[in-house]
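From the methods appendix. Each design record in this collection lists the tokenized structure first, followed by the designed amino acid sequence. Records were kept in a plain field format so they could be parsed without special tools. The example shown here is representative of the layout used throughout.

RECORD:
FOLD TOKENS (183 positions):
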């Protein structure tokens, strides 16, 4: 068992800066989601439900609640040099008893292929491991090779596959689990 923890509002990576998600990013977040809808919706169920700026704002409010309650921590990912919003990364499913947490993420399509997500994952995992979390999980649709690539590229070990646990756009898909331990 570890104590409930919070994370810093700002985390610095090599080329990315992670800032606590707040309403000041809602405009750029809405634009980014809207422009990358087809790319993101394949593996992110909330994209189709995000139909307006107000939906983004409502999601930010929920994330703020989660942060205040120390249940989840959502960051926007900014390009350190241009200040532009690249995507999002979060910690969720925090289990203090068993010292487990999970990472979720996405990037705008035109900023994939540069290592920004690897940078963000390394930055966030360092902060989370420092709080006593022992096991970090990345899970993804088995068809999502880009996401599995992030996990493997960053030293997360393939643990197994849950069969047909994701019902997505009329099909059942498998989910892969990748883990990294801090022990
Ligand atoms: C999953 C996702 C974040 C992966 O993004 P990504 O840019 O491929 O991830 P990384 O930051 O690890 O970058 C790796 C790529 O950058 C390249 N790269 C360049 N410089 C790099 C560096 N310094 N470090 C690591 N990779 C680097 C790698 O070769 C790799 O390119 P490749 O795929 O052509 O081989 C992105 O595809 C995405 O947002 N998808 C849609 C949403 C989604 O599926 N989210 C996950 C749900 S589980």
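DESIGN:
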């Amino acid at each position: 068992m570890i104590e409930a923890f919070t994370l810093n509002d700002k985390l610095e990576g090599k080329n990315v800066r992670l800032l606590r998600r707040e309403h000041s990013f809602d405009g750029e977040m809405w634009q980014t989601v809207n422009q990358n809808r087809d790319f993101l919706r394949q593996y992110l169920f909330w994209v189709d439900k995000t139909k307006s700026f107000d939906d983004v704002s409502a999601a930010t409010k929920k994330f703020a609640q989660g942060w205040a309650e120390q249940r989840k921590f959502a960051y926007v990912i900014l390009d350190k040099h241009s200040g532009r919003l690249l995507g999002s990364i979060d910690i969720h499913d925090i289990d203090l008893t068993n010292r487990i947490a999970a990472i979720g993420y996405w990037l705008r399509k035109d900023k994939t292929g540069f290592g920004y997500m690897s940078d963000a994952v390394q930055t966030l995992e360092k902060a989370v491991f420092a709080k006593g979390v022992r096991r970090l999980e990345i899970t993804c649709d088995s068809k999502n090779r880009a996401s599995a690539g992030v996990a493997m590229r960053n030293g997360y070990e393939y643990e197994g596959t849950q069969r047909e646990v994701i019902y997505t756009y009329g099909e059942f898909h498998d989910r892969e689990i990748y883990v990294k331990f801090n022990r």
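APPENDIX NOTE: The beta strands are 10-12, 16-20, 73-79, 85-95, 100-107, 135-141, 157-168, 171-181.
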